[in-house]
Amino acid sequence: MRNVLVIGGNRYFGKRLIALLRESGHRVTILNRGSSGAPEGIGHLVADRDDEAALESALAGRSFDVVVDQVCYTPRQAAIARRVFATRTRRYVMTSTVEVYAYEDSVTPVAEDALDLGSVTVDTGAAWEDPEFREAHYGEGKRQAEAVFAGAADDGAGPPFAWASVRVAHVLGGADDFTGRLDHYARRIRAGEPIAVPVANRPATYVYVEEIAAFLAWAAVGSDFTGPVNAHSHGPLTTAEICAAIESRVGGRTVFREVEVGEISPFSFTRSYGMDNSRAVGLGYPFSHSSDWLSDAVAETVGEVSK
User: Fold this and answer.
1) Please, where in the chain does CATH 3.40.50.720 lie?
2) Ranges of CATH 3.90.25 domains, the chain
3) Could you give the CA distance from residue 57 to residue 74 in angstroms, rounded to a whole number?
4) Which of 4, 6, 41, 280 has its CA 20 to 30 A from that of 165?
């Protein structure tokens, strides 16, 4: 049994992660700002992770075998976490994102070493405290956060704990998908309304909500790898393939409107930065294929929000 702390992220795939860890017999505690409570049988700590003193106070006298950080969005947050947990855990898993590769444009799937964390410029300035800035620079914030965890300390030492980042692909599935992205398509397909996509619309890598929860649990307590790892199901998907699955569920007709400039629909991409999951597979994780779950994912989400 492991003693696991999950920071934030106790909805969508985060709540599935917490349930999996508990069902596997681990002692689980969540830490958040108190906006939501803990499920039955789960420990609960309340603190603002951006407030280092408050975080230290909430964690006083506590240590964990592993920390899973679901809500580290900025280098400032990473720097605080690195200091606070330096003597409180042996393993730290950061949930990252495919968006760290948003500067890439490659027909070849992107491997982890395409991003050299040692060359990432880190800026922990006050701009990261602005929610609008943080949202607009989501991928960059994750890049810099990873660089902080991976980088050397002031004394030249490496990370104070075994550190890993899970670069999560675009997540699909679940009746509790709060993003509204599949709903964007379902409503337009039902009505036969145009869907704006780029002229050159690139495929992308995806992962089923249940699968990413299972992968994070494995990364936390089932493996000891360090450094970044890409996490996605086999089989990239195009916007057309996603729309076809939605159309078969809700009826209607898919109508694409190609645009050179301007706002485009979610899950349509002008750049190609689909990930390569070879490292995770080599470490022993058996990913599914997107064709195994796409129709179920659409049924779960669209069936809930598009009535």
Assistant:
1) 3-170+206-231
2) 174-205+235-274+288-305
3) 22
4) 41
Taking residue 51's Cβ as centre, other Cβ atoms within 10 Å add up to: 13
Looking at domain 3-170+206-231, what is its CATH homologous superfamily?
NAD(P)-binding Rossmann-like Domain (3.40.50.720)
- The burial of 134, by beta-carbon neighbours within 10 Å (0-12 exposed, 13-18 middle, 19 or more buried), is given as middle
Q: Is pTM, for the whole model, over 0.85?
A: yes
Indicate the class that CATH gives domain 174-205+235-274+288-305: alpha beta
- In tens, the pLDDT along 85-138 reads 999 999 999 999 999 999 999 989 999 999 999 999 999 998 999 999 999 999
Choose among 267, 230, 234: nearest CA to 113: 230
What backbone torsions phi and psi does residue 56 show, to the nearest 5 degrees?
-60, -45
